[in-house]
Amino acid sequence: MNDNSILALYLLSFVVAVLASYLALMLAARVSRARSGQALAWLIGGGITMGTGIWSMHFIGMLAFYLPIKVSYSFKETLLSWLVAIVVSCFALFLVKGTRRNRHNLVLGGIIIGAGLSAMNCVGMAAIKVGPGLRYDPALFVASVAVTIVGAIVALWLAFRLRGGDAWHTRLTRFSAAIIMGLAIMGMQFTNMAASRFSTPSLSAFNDGMDHNWLAFSVAGLSLTILAFILLLSFIDIRSRRYADALRLSLKTVHSKLAYLGTHDALTSLPNRSLVNKKITEIIDAAEGKAILFAVLHINIDRLKTVNESLGRAAGDQLLNAFVLRIRQTLRPGDMLARLSGDDFVVLAVVGQVEDAAGIAENLIEILGRPLHVPSHEIHVTASIGISLFPNNGTTAESLLATSDIAMSHVKQHGRNNYHFFTSEMHARNRDRINLESGLRPALRENEFRMFYQPKVDIRSGRIVGLEGLLRWKHPEYGLVSPTRFIPLAEESGLIVAIGDWVMEAACQQSRQWQDKGLMPDIIPIAINLSAHQFLQRDLVDSTIAVLKRHAIPPASLILELTEGSLMGNPENAIDVLRELTRLGIHVSIDDFGTGYSSLSYLRRFPLSEIKIDRSFVQSLENNLEDRAIVRAIVTLAHSLQLTVVAEGVTKVEQLRFLRQIGCDQYQGFLFSEPVPADIISGMLASQ
Question: ∠ CA 462-464-467 to the nearest 5 degrees?
Fold first, then answer.
């Protein structure tokens, strides 16, 4: 064998050593992270592959070991050395799989692995057939074992350090460590081989072993093929695991997002009702046996729906976020702000006394009353705040949220832009309110509504010239219920249109009955109140014509009363609808005139027939000069527009006398008659 061949075998041995070392480090990472079943497969397969690589490096190195004689090898010892390498490799991977790493384990494992590798070297060297046998230099042999053990300890330490991942810097470090380990392994082998001493060989032994010439390339080729194949499998496993990790991370992200959305509001990122319930429950549990006062402030944005309808949903969302930012500026550390629904928020605060909760509410009212800015708009909003206290108003999250909501509703019903603490009286009123609201639909179905009528009297002649139909509800529990109690509920529940249709039907039917009885020789129109929701119905004109035809009464027998707010919501559309109604002969009246914010230019364009002066101006006519001036101006304005003027709420002779002096046309009120059933009106009509 020439020098070039020896050098090539040494280089090949080094390449195999580096590849085996790199593969060993990679397999250590696989085994340490794999699950139990997979770990066993990687450990056995990895042990075979790693052992084969180490053994082949050792065997190729032996083939490069130059002796001045022809050398052959024993198949039995060669196979045994390969099996020793596999067993040692499996043991090494088993040690790396463990999670505990300390000096004791490293040293003990290194000694066992080093001894095993030395045994592999000895058995491999014993496979060389050179006659009388092989002996070792004691000092060099001990040195080779020591080098092997130290190398094994270093290899174990590197395997532990580099088993944690497949990042590029980890792979680079692992490759560098593999080069060092390859050099160390070759150093172990060369030290062991340097300790070998051969006797003069017997020529008769030269023909007993495997041929040296093709053995080096066969072992190297087979080993490199196995190492390359396992390396390829490892890279495929890395790619698969990365894909699985990415998928797992994606699923984890989605799960975290869903979990977050389950407890937080998507628009404002505030805690939602679910998290509020949990927080209140935690505070209540922590307060057990302690004197803790805890406040729940229910905040509602007044008229947010108007902003959404006029400026769009995007502007409404921007307003909400600005609203949230404004609230946060007033809160103390430890207070919690959450969003319950579209325009409902809640603040949770532990307070020392009731006045502290009031102070929080006052600060909120003050700061939320300032203008809020969204792109191209400055918006003024207000807030209604209801406050409930633990333990005074409830001892559960559900009861505290319910009582704060009741208190907030009380504020909205009494002017908005304020705060109020919950009281037991509110609870009773709220219970009645719920009972009334839930009974509206059955009331329509069971015909529980009744029509009362109040005469409209000509001021000069004292004769009944018109009637106003007023709705009452004969409730099975509460008796006769005023419309002021249930009409707002009907508007909120969406039943106001159906109730309005019932009123129109009942009034027209009653007019037909009075005309059939001859009680209305001249047309005496019946006025009914039309809600804003009913006025906005597209089929208002058609449905009104249908009712008139159904009861065969002339259009002049019906007056539709509207508030200024109903007309001014969309004045241009209102003008078109009113013109169509008046063209058919139906009269239209503005109810409660003077309490709204009508534009006089629109008032001039509305095709109206009469104006009704609100009772708030009539009640103090006898002694309030300002109200007298207002009523006088209304009468003058109406007459200039050729409109009939009706004064509501006349209860005193002095009021009637003043109205007669300024030329008011009609009046209605308790001075003549309160609203009464149809049969009493029949008597009044018959007697005049």
Answer: 140
Which candidate, 565, 297, 295, 303, places its Cα nearest to that of 417? Answer: 303
Region for 59 from its dihedrals, namely left if φ exceeds 0, alpha if ψ lies in -120 to 50, beta otherwise: alpha
How far lies 27's CA from each of 83, 85, 239, 494, 640, in Å?
19, 16, 15, 71, 102
Q: Total domain count for the chain?
A: 3
The CB-side HSE value for 644 (13 A sphere, CA atoms) comes to 17
pTM over 0.85: no
Burial 60-99 (b: 16+ CB within 10 A, else e): bbbbbbeeeebbbbbeebbebbbebbbebbbbbbebbbee
SS3 666: strand
Q: Which token pair is 586? A: 């139906």
* pLDDT tens by residue, 67-101: 554 555 566 777 777 787 777 767 665 665 654 55
Direct distance between the N- and C-terminal alpha carbons of the chain, in angstroms, rounded to an integer: 146
Decide if 648 is inside a domain: no
Do residue 589 and residue 459 come from a single domain?
A: yes
The domain that holds 569 is classified in CATH as 3.20.20.450
Asked whether residue 406 falls in the same domain as residue 447, the answer is no
Q: Which two tokens stand for residue 346?
A: 């809640």
What's the burial of 146, exposed, middle or buried (CB within 10 Å: 0-12/13-18/19+)? middle
Residue 209: φ, ψ to 5°: -110, -170
Q: CA 471, CA 491: separation in Å to the nearest integer?
A: 15
Q: Do residues 33 and 41 touch, judged by C-beta distance below 8 A?
A: no
132 three-state secondary structure: coil
* Same domain as 531, residue 596: yes
Does 57 share its domain with 131?
A: yes
**Residues 581, 578: Cα–Cα separation, whole Å:** 5
Closest CA to 670 of 646, 656, 647, 649: 649
Q: β-pairing, 479-481 with 526-529?
A: unpaired
The 10 Å CB-count burial string (b at 16+, else e) for 470-480 is bbbbebeeeee
> Please, what's the b/e burial string for 398-413 (b: 16 or more CB within 10 A of its CB; e: otherwise)?
eebbbbbbbbbbbbee
CA distance readout (Å), 168 to 110, 652, 675: 28, 97, 90
Task: Write the CA distances from 674 to 460, 470, 530, 600, 669, integer angstroms.
Answer: 20, 11, 21, 32, 6
Residue corresponding to tokens 């509410």: 361
Q: Tell how far CA 599 is from the center of its chain.
A: 45
Domain that holds residue 168: 3-238
Contact between residue 421 and residue 411 where contact means Cβ atoms under 8 Å apart? no
DSSP per-residue string spanning 517-553: TTS-SS---EEEE--HHHHT-TTHHHHHHHHHHHHT-
Q: Residues 201-218: what's their mean pLDDT?
A: 43
Residues 50 and 167 grouped into a single domain:
yes
Q: Which of 422, 454, 479 corresponds to the end of one domain?
A: 422
- Average pLDDT score over residue span 16-43: 62
Shared domain for 153 and 207, answered yes or no, is yes
Query: Do 441 and 408 lie in a common domain?
Result: no
Minimum mean pLDDT range among 122-126, 280-284, 657-661? 122-126
Q: Residue 647: in which H helix or E strand, if any?
A: strand 644-648
Q: Is there a single domain that holds both residue 398 and residue 442?
A: no
Which residue's structure tokens are 């309160």? 674
Q: Which two tokens stand for residue 222?
A: 């087979």
